[in-house]
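HUMAN: I'm a chemist; might I ask for a sequence paired with its structure tokens?

ASSISTANT:
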Amino acid sequence: MSARILSSDCWTAPDKEAPAYRIVLPDRQPTVHGSGTPAFELIFPDEASCRRFFRADSYVAALDFINGQFAIRGDLPGAIALKMAHPGTFLARRKAALLALASSWRLETLVQSRRRAKQNIEFHYDRSNAFFRAFLDSRMVYSCAYFTSLEDRSMRRSWRSWT
């Protein structure tokens, strides 16, 4: 199974050293890749999702992670480093580059008038303070609720009261 998933068409740079990691698929024995103790696990619901991860460009892989198509247990920066070292197939990378180039052409102007663009902007940005108070902190500042010091205890307590 792992030879098929990690075949040469998935790895674009097989000479790059990857951290040791484990691939977990349902109804299969987990497989360890690399030498040493695995720093993280890539958990996939099926083989197709695993293949997609290794063949996809970094953006598509990140979207799949955000959308719950697979999970990472353990060293998240290590998993990101693995994906960055092996950014997918040649075709996937070229497709991503073409899409990035096309985005600079402002193609939305072909399907959206200036009036419609103005309406869209107003809809998303012209909101009352009451709307933002519903999810911002007391200073109207976005917080991801990551607190680095004990001085943040009052903010942590405040955050917990909202959840």
